[in-house]
Amino acid sequence: MSILYNTPLMPLPSQTLPLSLNNNLSFTAISFSISKPTRSLRPPLQRHPSSHPSSFPPCFSSLSEMDGTVGQCLYPLHRTKTIHLVRHAQGIHNVEGEKDYRAYMSEELFDAHLTPLGWRQVDNLRKHVYEFGINKKIELVIVSPLLRTMQTAVGVFGGEGYTDGINAPPLMVENAGKSNHPAISSLHSPPFIAVELCREHLGVHPCDRRRSISEYRSIFPAIDFSLIESDEDILWRADIREKDEEVAARGQKFLKWLWTRKEKEIAVVSHSGFLYHTLSAFGNDCYPSVKSEICTNFANCELRSVVLVDRGMIGSDTTITNYPGKNPQGLDLPSDVAEEINPSQVIACSGEMNQH
Q1: CA quadruple 28, 151, 143, 279: dihedral sign
Q2: Chain center to CA of 279
Q3: Three-state DSSP state, 269
Q4: Active-site residues: which are they?
Q5: What burial class does residue 179 get, using C-beta atoms within 10 Å of its C-beta: 0-12 exposed, 13-18 middle, 19+ buried?
Q6: What is the C-alpha separation between 26 and 306, in angstroms, rounded?
Q7: For a Cys-Cys bond, which of 145, 163, 169, 207 suits 112, CB 3.0-4.6 Å?
Q8: DSSP strand pairing (25-29 vs 18-21)
Q9: Each residue's pLDDT tens digit in the chain (356 positions)?
Q10: 3-state SS of the chain: helix, strand, coil percent to 5?
């Protein structure tokens, strides 16, 4: 598949509607649409019966309760995370698969690397990330352990060019994965962690089979691979392709794991199939336009920013921005609350005031 990177767009308006999953985690749409697919890669989504414009967010039960708050919900800040979702840039498998779908079965596309156009897409997204200051906010980059995703991740969120002798390992060595690209420094960049839960569909297609972690460590020295248990790829099978619903279940597991991280603003660099099937579980109780911001296919090197909300008790973080007030201690009751607590004192006080 060959999809050009379009000119970055300004952030889309936030509708802050919860896109729920199992009543515990939900997404709120505040998308940055960086590029749009030129055509759909999967069947269009069927509109869920509850996604009609007359549907309300689950925190309201009637129109009278909404009173000017249509499309709005409030959540405690410490129960949210901002997630920047990125699909890898164009890989060699995208080009060959666009010509002939059977090419995905070719061993020549094993662990597909980025094309020269893909690297230009990376450069464009990097410029956007710096222009809007996203790079200054990201505390962690999580990446699928395949060549094309790691090349994209370090190219977008990594440091500048690497120079021998500096006291930091490079994120990527020169010409890693036939990239013909200079080394990329880890200086002034967030930590990078490779996580297998956010890999593409597993099985059958060689382009989705990874190399050994030992080999990856030699070309991506500053990426942390400690969460990957097996050096060899034991998840990919030549005769069984992971089902869409299995990818979606893995995506839900990934999001729940993501919530256990202490970081509040995280970039995730993954794949079209994984992102599509993971996000399609959200948005059925929202307006169709909001659902479409989340649940459509990702173009190569597209970024979408969303807010992950803990509506249950998955997260245990305490707030660092709330302030308790009333310190030092002292009486501080609004008049209507005081009347409810001790109406007799309020009546007596009112009588004294009338005498004066």
Answers
A1: positive
A2: 10
A3: strand
A4: 88, 200
A5: buried
A6: 10
A7: 207
A8: antiparallel
A9: 222 223 333 333 333 334 444 546 665 544 444 444 444 344 443 433 333 333 333 443 333 443 444 567 788 888 899 999 999 999 999 999 999 999 999 999 999 999 999 999 999 999 999 999 999 999 999 999 999 999 999 999 998 766 666 678 899 999 998 888 999 999 889 999 999 999 999 999 999 999 999 999 999 999 999 999 999 999 999 999 999 999 999 999 999 999 999 999 999 999 999 999 999 988 887 888 888 888 899 999 999 999 998 877 665 577 778 887 766 666 666 766 666 666 565 455 555 545 55
A10: 35, 15, 55
Q: Is 219:177 a contact under the CB 8 Å cutoff?
A: yes
Q: Position 98: which residue type? A: E
A 10 A CB-CB count for 317 gives 14
143, two tokens: 């990446």
Phi and psi at 126, nearest 5°, equal -60, -45
Q: How many angstroms separate the CA atoms of 298 and 305, rounded?
A: 12
Coil, strand or helix: which one is 178?
A: coil
The answer to whether 303 and 132 are in contact (CB under 8 A) is no
Give the pair of three-digit tokens for residue 84.
């920047």
Q: How many residues does the chain have?
A: 356
Containing 289, the helix (H) or strand (E) segment is helix 288-295
**Rounded CA separation 194/224 (Å):** 6
